[in-house]
Amino acid sequence: MRAAVLGVFMLAVFIQNTVLDSLQLFGIKPDLVFVLVIFSALLRGQKEGAFTGFVAGFLMDLAAGSYLGLNALALLAAGYLAGIMQTALYKDNPFVVALVTLLVSFLTGLIYYLLFLYLGIFISPEMALGRITLFGAVYNALVALLLYRWFFRTYPRVYQ
Amino acid sequence: MPRRGAGKKLFFVLLLILAVFLVMKNTGLKEAAMPPLEGAWRDVSAPVQKVCVSVTRWLENVLARPFALINASRQNEQLTREVAELKARLQELEEYRLENERLKKLLDLQTRPPGNFKVTAATVVGRDPGNWFKTITLDKGSRQGVQVNMPVLVPEGLVGRVVEVSANTAQVMLITDPRSAVSSLIQENRSPGIVEGTADPSGRLRMIHIPYDVFVRKGQVVITSGLGSLFPKGIVIGQILEAKKDPTGLFYNATIQSLVDFNRLEEVLIVTGTAE
Question: In terms of residue numbers, what domain contains A39?
């Protein structure tokens, strides 16, 4: 992983911690770091996606200050899942990218829920999978739709 | 040979995942001072975060102003009416307060009135990056006398408690966090219960273990009970929205709406002690 890519993700975590609070809709904020992981997985494949997800998630864990590895594991899975679809899909279509984001976002929510059960944190399934995950997935898909063109133009240059 | 190499890689990946599972389980909130590295990172990033949050809020206000003006006139009328009503109610309550003081003197009670706290104001400079946990970072830490487990309030009610401190920052777990539990009372009938966070994005809470033999209805105010000594007695938590019997039939469970807008917290008060 190049230093520039790491820098992009550090900046994304910082924005996630501060500015994105102002973009909350019904108490849910979009997950910029997650969307960037999906984008890089769609560009670079499942291994790179999983690795990027792990590192980005670890940065989020450091920012959150507890349960080190929770976001790292969830985003590792997200990067891997999105990477699987890399070759099978026509990723130049923004709606395909948004759909992948929606789907992987929902599956990642499910993974978070299972990890919470492992950690002994109880959130009702309706709340976790309904309001937080489903609404968050729709919001992430909309953000993906807005950002994908900029990202797919810039990211390969950052990697060179 | 390549197959053996791939097997080795898979083994290491699985080992890494297993290690992460173990680390995750052992790095939950410990309610203590932050580890030195994390504390230093928070102290360095807090001023930058503060500037960033201030700029965002300013922008938000500028963009929202035209919309706010549209409602201002209608709101003004409504508020004038409410002020008149509340003035009358205040006079009535003043009578009750004086009566209460007289009775207390008669009974020689040595209780402290709720709200008699020593507080220090702090600004919110960051939040948990995800949608699952509800924590905020404040710009005051151990150097300003903030300690773990100190309650955090706003005039509308209870916000949460300090769970980690560094030299210049403090992390607060909001009462809406799914890991939070507050010992509480229904103000009107003094029935005890526990208010839990539900991770609900709209800030709703759940009160459990309310005895089934009391009358629970919409609008009743829930306050802290003071049991367990983390939160002083009498801080407003919220109002009951609805109540249902739990599956065992022995208790009521109630949905509570806090009066605090947890999504828009800017400044809060940390209770550092009780006034003499």
Answer: 3-159
B126 CB neighbours in chain A (<8 A) are 17-18, 63
Q: What pLDDT was estimated at residue A1?
A: 58
Average pLDDT over all residues of chain A: 88
The tens digit of pLDDT for each residue in A39-81 reads: 999 988 899 999 999 999 999 988 887 888 999 999 999 999 9
Q: How many CB pairs under 8 A join A and B?
A: 113
B203 to chain A nearest CA, in Å? 8
Q: Select the residue from B131, B162, B169, B263 to test the A interface by mutation, using most A Cβ atoms within 10 A.
A: B131
- Residue B143 is assigned to a structural domain of this protein: no
Let me know if residue B194 belongs to a domain: yes
CB B191 within 8 A of CB B257: no
- Count up the domains in chain A and report the number: 1
Residues B246 and B264: their CA atoms lie apart, in Å, by 32
pLDDT digits (tens, 9 = 90+) for A84-116: 887 777 767 888 899 999 999 999 999 999 999
CATH (domain of A25) = 1.10.1760.20
AA letter at A157: R
Count of structural domains, chain B = 1
User: Which residue in A47, A27, A60, A50 sits closest to A104, CA to CA?
Assistant: A50
Q: Which domain holds residue B215?
A: 181-257
Rounded CA separation B29/B180 (Å): 11
Question: Which CATH number belongs to the domain containing residue B199 in this structure?
Answer: 2.40.10.350
Bigger pLDDT: A33 or A153?
A33
d(C-alpha A61, C-alpha B104), whole Å: 52
